[in-house]
Amino acid sequence: MHVRIRDVTTLSDDWYLLKKTTFDYRRRDGSWQTMSRETYDRGHGAVILLYNLARRTVVLVRQFRFPAFGYGGRHDGYLIEAPAGLLDAASPEERIRAEVAEETGFHVEHVQRIFDAFMSPGSVTERLHFFVAEYEATHRIDGGGGVAAEGEDIEVLELGIDTALAMIADGRIEDGKTIMLLQHAALHLFPRR
Ligand SMILES: Nc1nc2c(ncn2[C@@H]2O[C@H](COP(=O)(O)OP(=O)(O)O[C@H]3O[C@H](CO)[C@@H](O)[C@H](O)[C@@H]3O)[C@@H](O)[C@H]2O)c(=O)[nH]1
Ligand SMILES: [Mg+2]
């Protein structure tokens, strides 16, 4: 084993959990080194891109993100993202279908898992499960918008894939998971023009 845990301290246990762990790590040359790292544990998550090949469109959401608002006072905090949510106890497939319905009003049956990724492995424990699903206009049962009582105030956007890709280049889309999904869609889902 290359890790021996020495001590774990809870620094904060409020909405999510922030811990500091002191451990011995066996370096590649075989010597042991003691270090400590803080980890922020907010569970794991899932994210999905809804796409329609005939219309060359995708469904994204726009919402206020307080941590982004802080950025040097230069950001209004509104981010355009693919619909996403935390897993709680559910399976990723189950959770993402419920989440996309809640946030966008689109009810999709078949979702395809494409890959998993650590989004910020220097400090955040979360692993994010990535999905895509084809959608039709008739799959929209209601307006979505998220759970107002939990502070969600979600605007639903249906954009052309080419417009969405241009929005990455000009900085209007700057959320990591969303950029990964749009680039996946451009590479593997939509036929090149
Ligand atoms: N009271 C309170 N509420 C919080 C706090 N932090 C988050 N919430 C609320 O917890 C809910 C979480 O909503 P989800 O839709 O389940 O999660 P998400 O925030 O969209 O997370 C998704 O995106 C993240 C950012 O990319 C991902 O990290 C995550 O895995 C997931 O995909 C939201 O209502 C949010 O306002 C907090 O500190 N206090
Ligand atoms: Mg969400």
UniProtKB/TrEMBL annotation:
Give UniProt keywords alphabetically: Hydrolase, Magnesium, Metal-binding
* Example GO BP: ribose phosphate metabolic process
The residues that hold Mg(2+) are A84, E99, E103, E152
What's one Pfam family here? NUDIX
Give the required cofactors: Mg(2+)
Nudix hydrolase domain location is 41-181
InterPro entries membership: NDP_pyrophosphatase, NUDIX_hydrolase-like_dom_sf, NUDIX_hydrolase_dom
MF terms from GO for this chain are: hydrolase activity, acting on acid anhydrides, in phosphorus-containing anhydrides; metal ion binding
Extract one GO cellular component term from the record. cytosol
Renumbered ranges of motif Nudix box: 85-106
Q: Does the keyword Acyltransferase apply?
A: no
The record lists the catalysed reaction(s) as: GDP-alpha-D-mannose + H2O = alpha-D-mannose 1-phosphate + GMP + 2 H(+)
Family assignment from sequence similarity: Belongs to the Nudix hydrolase family. NudK subfamily.
The record's section on PANTHER family has: NUDIX HYDROLASE DOMAIN-CONTAINING PROTEIN, UDP/ADP-SUGAR PYROPHOSPHATASE
- Name listed for the protein in its UniProt record: GDP-mannose pyrophosphatase
